[in-house]
Amino acid sequence: MSRRAVVDDIHATALAMPHVTVARTGALPVYQVGGKSFVFFRTPRSDAVDPRTGERYDDVVVIWVGSEGDKLALVQDESSPFFTTPHFDGHPSVLLRASRVGEVSRDEVVELVQDAWLAQASRRRAATWLREHHLEP
User: Fold this and answer.
1) How far is the C-alpha of 51 from the C-alpha of 15, rounded, in Å?
2) At a CB cut-off of 8 Å and minimum separation 6, what does 121 contact?
3) Is this prediction's pTM over 0.90?
């Protein structure tokens, strides 16, 4: 297993993908490909709160996934740092608190961000990237 992930791994991987632009919500980055977000750091919202204090989480990262099955695989284990909220029901994404990113490996974060990019990139861009990386579409 690779080292534990850090938040900079999310940023670095997103920025390393082709055709990425960075929009901003205030100071928070929104990584996009072809105008579609695939990873974004969001402002505190009432749907993601600390169950003990009721305080809004201020470090939530939204990461697109390829399918509902992919989402369920990440969020079903309650010990996993990945989660969802009713606000994201039916939305192909998972949530991750930046403060818990170290609970997964760098390799897992890289794969998750790359898969998020693939989920939002055009078919042509995705096929080109997969071919260049000797991966099957």
Assistant:
1) 33
2) 19, 33, 34, 36, 38, 129
3) yes
